[in-house]
Amino acid sequence: MALRSCLIPFLQQLGDDVSYWGFFVEYAPKMASGAMTTAMVMGCSALLAAVISLIFGLMRLSQNWGVQAAATVYIEFFRGTSLLVQLYWIYYVLPLMGLTLSPFMSGVLALGLNFGAYGAEIVRGGVQSVPRGQWEAALALNMSPAQRMRRIIVPQTFTLILPPMANLTVELLKATALVALITVVDLMFVAKQINATTWLSAQVFGTALIIYYIMARFALIPFLRWLEVLAARKVGKA
Amino acid sequence: MEWRWDFTFEILPRMLWATGNTLLAAGIGYLIALVVGLILMLGQRTPYRIVNFIVREVVEFIRSTPLLVQLFFVFFVAPQFGIKLTAWTSAMLTIGLHFGTYLSEVYRGALEGVPKAQWEACRALNFSTAYTYRRVVLPQAFPIALPGMGNYLVGIFKDTPLLATIGVAELMHTANALGAETYRYLEPYTMVGFIFLIISLPAAMGLRRLEAAVAKAQGKVKH
Amino acid sequence: MDTRHPQSLPDGSPLVRFADVTKSYGDLTVLDKLNLDIAQNEMVSIIGPSGSGKTTVLRVLMTLETINDGVIYVDGEPLTHMPSGAGLEVASESYLRQRRSKIGMVFQQFNLFPHMTALQNCIEAPMQVLGLSRDEAEERALDLLQMVGMDSKKDQHPTRLSGGQQQRVAIARALAMRPQVMLLDEVTSALDPEVIGEVLNVIRSLNSEHNLTMIMVTHQMGFAREISDRVCFFYEGKIAEQGSPEKLFEDPQNERTKQFLHAVLDAN
Ligand SMILES: Nc1ncnc2c1ncn2[C@@H]1O[C@H](COP(=O)(O)OP(=O)(O)O)[C@@H](O)[C@H]1O
Ligand SMILES: [Mg+2]
User: Fold this and answer.
1) Residue A98 within a domain
2) Selection from A206, A181, A165 nearest residue B164 by Cα
3) Which of the residues A46, A213, C93, C164 has the least number of beta carbons within 10 Å of its own beta carbon?
């Protein structure tokens, strides 16, 4: 009985092609523009996160005690608290201290800082897994510590860190949905908006999920794989 | 804006109570995810290639879409079809499903981490499949899976603030409510961050210990 | 500050001098008050049982490891230390960078840079460290690659090369820095038997045609005997016996040397 009472409206909804098509035609442009914003948030925060990952990942390996401690505190802090908490803090609390950022900026900053902390650990792991012999060969050629790092070690870490970085980037795309909660008009925000006026929840959130899926599976992941192949070719492994 | 300690202590009981809810949500969600993960892993190892394929695609779909959108989907769509789900039920279902896909990967990786030769040795000794799993494969796979399993427990914990968006009265929800009531956001939000930190830091440390212990037990030396 | 050792050696001194060099890891003393002089253009082979400190001698000379006591001099000037007041103090990184350029090293595991081609491996340090232009560096590198017989593979990445080929590129890479002393640490130990010969041939020509000063750790007794001016037998961080190859291989005096040569030659 319970099953039938669920199933019938479900089938009615599904069978009603016209209603979904009508929904699609009406709301597709709005959702597409939301998706564009999602892509923007994603691109900007990925760039920020990449820079932070590199800087803090290398700081974490510094011989200097203070530099290393600063990086550790940063990384543990941003990994230890929750992304949403950081987002709210930046958006709602920072203005109380006199620093007001736009919703977009707040979102990019929170995502960049948070994912930068995770990325820094990946960079650290990558650098540490470059064989010792590479450092020694560079030293035997009398390269300075900076030259060793920049010319020998960092280029070699790219192939090592790209696969875990790719996973992290997909997580970043998913995490961008949170910026809707601080009024950035991204895909999630648009979906919520449409849902609030139409109550066509299955259609709107279902479509949003599919768009996120397409962005991840058919745009982001192929792009990241391409980067991996490119990096592999650079080190002569392809 | 100044930090007010009297206000901090005034809201502390409510925050602690909410912390209990957060931990409860993470715990229940994790238990569901452990089971869902098992089902999704087994679903990819059936004798039917079509079933394996479908389950694999479903896992991929869930893994590459945002938890937040899934949460709204479950919470709002169910009533559309006449199913009444409370915020808590929706939340637990979504978390269980979302992280179940990750755990299925952890299980799969762990099973694949057991050398093929172990299976072959069991075949040579004429052990049954069930016996092989129970006495040979699972005891070796479990330590491999442990760190991943621990990681996702912490992962779920850190994602619980999202549940506030559909009205689960966990920490973030309580902080929002306090902010709305008192117009003070500094203390509630900062306290949420602090509480997360003091729970997840020791947890992460414990995890690292666990990982090291597992690596050591497997005879791998960490450099 | 250390005042037991001179701030520089008089003219006519050996190219490399180990003066009472001690190296230890915790309680384990790996080099024990080692004294060793190496003359200009000399080819010295180091042999000895595993763990006797052979690699460590090369590594402290390359400044890959710091020593605990004593001083190493290269070309009359201290390497591990720098003048300070009346004595010597431990060298700073910038001082090391000045002095280290006189030494080159080839490793057992080649340690070529995997993200660079053979040619790029050979021009990287000359351009970055010596400040050569790309043209100058390439000219120098191509000459050397030709000498080691690797010019036809100059655009290959190391993963595409056999062990013997990689080791020959590694030799060219070290030579491109024009070191005065070359250190070779079991350079054929990681190679398949059939390619050992090609690497030994390169070392032969370095010795005969280029008159380079070389210190070579090796397990190839025949080769050591053929090519060396002097052979040092290491035992427990000390030179137990040294002398001309003929003397050491045919008429060893030390009991340890006899045992070692017996064991090695029997195995062959
Ligand atoms: N980084 C290190 N830490 C501790 N002990 C070391 C280290 N490197 C070498 N040793 C020890 O020093 C001794 C000499 O090593 P090595 O010079 O490599 O010997 P050889 O090359 O003659 O085989 C060995 O007992 C070795 O275990
Ligand atoms: Mg050795």
Assistant:
1) yes
2) A181
3) C93
Ligand 1 pocket: which of C47, C55, C215, C235 to mutate (most atoms within 8 A of CB): C55
A49-99, pLDDT tens digit by residue? 999 999 999 999 998 999 999 999 999 999 999 999 999 999 999 998 899
Residue A29 backbone phi and psi in degrees, to 5: -60, -40
Global ipTM: 0.90
Distance, in Å, from the CA atom of C203 to the CA atom of C216, rounded to the nearest integer, reads: 10
C218 φ, ψ (degrees, to nearest 5): -150, 155
Whose tokens are 């070529």? That residue is C112
pLDDT single digits (tens) B2-18: 889 999 999 999 999 99
Q: Which atom of ligand 1 approaches the CA of C26 most closely?
A: 4
Q: Which residues contact B98 (CB under 8 A, 6 or more apart)?
A: B33, B62, B67, B70
Give dist(CA A148, CA C128) in Å, integer: 10
The interface residues of chain B toward chain A in range 163-182, judged by CB-CB distance below 8 A, are: 164-165, 172, 175, 179
User: Using CA atoms, how far apart are residues A41 and B36, in angstroms rounded to an integer?
Assistant: 32
Tens-place pLDDT, residues B72-99:
999 998 888 888 899 999 999 999 999 9
The answer on pLDDT for B36 being more than 70 is: yes
Interface contact flag, A213 B64, Cβ < 8 Å? yes
Q: Of the bound ligands, which one is closest to the alpha carbon of residue C238?
A: 1
Contact flag for C and A (3+ C-beta pairs < 8 Å) = yes
Examine the domain organization and report whether A50 and A144 are in the same domain.
yes
**What proportion of chain B, given as a percentage, has pLDDT over 90?**
77
- The answer to whether residue A111 sits within a structural domain is yes
pLDDT given for residue A199 in this prediction: 86
Residue B133's identity, in one-letter code, is Y
Q: What is the pTM of this model?
A: 0.84
